[in-house]
Fold this sequence. Notes:
It is a single chain. By secondary structure, the chain is of the alpha/beta class. It is built from 11 helices and 7 strands. Strands 3-2-1-4 form a 4-stranded parallel sheet, with helices on both faces. A 3-stranded mixed sheet has the order 5-6-7. A hairpin with a 2-residue loop joins β5 and β6 (216-220). The radius of gyration is 19 Å and the shape is globular.
Amino acid sequence: MPEADLDRLRARLRELGSVAVAFSGGADSAFLAWVAHDTLGAGSALAITAVSPSLPASERLECAELAEEWGLRWQEVETKELENALYRQNDGERCFWCKDALMVAIGPIIEGSGTAVALGVNLDDLDDHRPGQRAAAERGAVFPLVDAGFTKADVRAWSERLGLRTWNKPAAACLASRLPYGTPVTLGRLSAVERAEAGLRALGFDELRVRHHGEVARIEVPDIELAAVVAQREAVVAAVTAAGYRWVALDLAGLKSGGFNQQLT
């Protein structure tokens, strides 16, 4: 692992001195939170989870479990992005306003302490449409994984090497990412997506997206899982319609992370 050096990451964290890690429970933020805690100690490393309707309840629970398991100093903070009309309109800048709300919410917690807000952004993230990174950077956030040369694969490899169970956790994104750009974000739509995805996970599909298209739910799973969805089609339809959708579609192109970003090109 010549590029992504754990000692370099630890050195960067020591340079910062005190960090508050935006902790969503995903592989990147979990790795950063663990390393920060291990390097700086609980007194100088805080993990903060943003709680809002766009965070699935299962992910919120996962954050709590990981914090307890790893002994992290952890707290939740409520973000209020749904109160912002610029967020709700769901244009290409939606993520900007989400991260802006996060930084605003964290502000009072760290005010006057000299603590830096650290995000689990890796080098691969820099190539995608990520206005949230810009919002965070504009408010002073730092990206230690980028500074230390970590890609997504590096994060997973080092996580496995360190024995972190998040090393192979499927990539996740906020529930609002399931809505096409231009479809307003509402509590009802976020709730429908969350219930549909929870129902499918109960059937054994761990890596998936339910894309919201009005009364139609478009299911994305990895190519290797397509046949399994068809094989359980009655249970799949029942789970998704129970969430309030009228029609259920399976996307034969498979799972595409950031699938709606092609609307912006």
